[in-house]
Design brief:
The chain contains 14 helices and 18 strands. The protein folds into 2 domains: about 230 residues, Clavaminate synthase-like (Double-stranded beta-helix, 4-Layer Sandwich); about 120 residues, no CATH class. Helices cover about 30% and strands about 20% of the residues.
Length: about 400
């Protein structure tokens, strides 16, 4: 895990770019037909002895091919490469492909801490308190910010089993899903709540409103998301939820224009989370709403999202040195439960040849505060937290 001190410090990386939305005026039937023509799966590239002998030079020599294939398939699984078994080698790999690191879209939320800050490398969700938590399919995205690419690396697979990395093609999911449901969600749009604070319903309304206003003014802005504070949106009296603004469930890829399933409902819908292993405290539980009425998605709609999404999951048993390179607008990812200890990490990348998309902002130092506070709280959770929730 040692960094190469001869390399420059990347901690002043680019801000995660703003989300590129292009979802207006879609004909759903035609969008599904177009997605079906493009639907693909993860491309697997296995290292030969000759490839390993080249080290980082392999990736420099094949940069154009890798970029082309990533755009075509949405994800590439590099297997058996010795180079990426170390932090320094992993960095050589993505620098050879000329990817430019950026902050995690949710950096300020504290969901991930750095494995090696000077290498722009975040720890994945390896916390013992969350090893019993199934992470559903999602893009590393909010309505406000989305990384262009990601590279997930395995340094240590789960010592007692499990922890497979999940990846699925957003075009394949869109093509698969019931047309009536896609049309319904497209017409009504969705909103996602990202946290809960339960205020005792016995508190007078003015106190509940005061808490809501305080959170809205003092806490929400630090999450760098477009959030609205709402009380009782999911029907639970006194529950304060931070809810993202309305978004389309599908989007056109910024480069190819291919329509894709582009949302985090498979991971965030409460009716799905409550029916699978979940080790997240109530404050971190999420929910998905129809944006026009703020009703939660029905179980029937959630089950169709589950069916279509999981039909196209590829579960990767990654070994040390394996890297999954992902187009974050095309492929969705997740993680199965695991036992023992596991160490995977990830870097996020911005647009490299389009300054308008990339933005001009470098990393704002003030974003670090919330990240460190929340990670400190999560580190104190007991290893078997998930079993306490059953």
């Amino acid at each position: 895990m040692a960094t190469d001190m001869d390399k420059p410090d990347l901690s002043g990386m680019w801000e995660c770019p703003l989300t590129k939305w292009d979802s207006n005026g879609m004909n759903i039937v035609e969008a599904q037909k177009e997605a079906a023509k493009q639907a693909s799966g993860t491309l697997e590239i296995r290292a030969s002895a000759e490839d390993n002998a080249l080290g980082a030079e392999y990736f420099r020599n094949n940069k154009d091919m890798i970029r082309k294939e990533l755009l075509k398939s949405g994800s590439i699984w590099f297997r058996g490469f010795d180079l990426m078994k170390s932090v320094s080698g992993y960095r050589q790999m993505h620098e050879a492909i000329e990817l430019q690191p950026c902050l995690d879209p949710l950096h300020s939320s504290g969901l991930r801490k750095f494995s090696s800050e000077r290498d722009a490398l975040y720890e994945e969700v390896n916390k013992p308190s969350l090893r019993g938590h199934y992470i559903g399919l999602h893009s590393e995205s909010t309505t406000k910010r989305t990384a262009a690419y990601a590279a997930f690396v395995c340094f240590q697979k789960a010592t007692e089993g499990g922890g497979r990395f999940l990846v699925a093609d957003g075009a394949a999911i869109l093509a698969e899903m019931d047309t009536a449901l896609v049309q319904k969600l497209y017409d009504r749009q969705i909103r996602i709540s990202v946290s809960n604070i339960d205020i005792p319903p016995s508190f007078p309304q003015f106190i509940q409103d005061g808490v809501k206003n305080l959170v809205d003014a003092a806490v929400a802005p630090k999450f760098d998301m477009d959030l609205e504070m709402m009380i009782g949106a999911d029907g639970k009296e006194g529950r304060l939820q931070a809810v993202e603004i309305a978004e389309s469930p599908i989007n056109r890829h910024p480069v190819t224009g291919i329509p894709v399933w582009f949302n985090n409902a498979h991971n965030h819908a409460r009716k799905l989370r409550d029916r699978r292993p979940c080790g997240v405290p109530e404050v971190g539980m999420t929910e998905v709403f129809y944006a026009d009425t703020m009703e939660t998605l029905t179980l029937e709609d959630c089950n169709e999202i589950k069916r279509a999404s999981e039909k196209h999951i590829t579960a990767l048993a990654m070994e040390p040195g394996d890297v999954l390179l992902v187009d974050n607008y095309r492929a969705l990812h997740g993680r199965d439960v695991f036992q023992g200890d596991r160490y995977h990490a990830v870097s996020w990348f911005t647009w490299d040849d389009n300054e308008e998309w990339r933005g001009e902002e470098r990393r704002p130092v003030q974003k670090n505060g919330m990240n460190k506070v929340i990670n400190g709280m999560m580190d104190w959770l007991p290893k078997d937290f998930e079993s306490d929730q059953s």
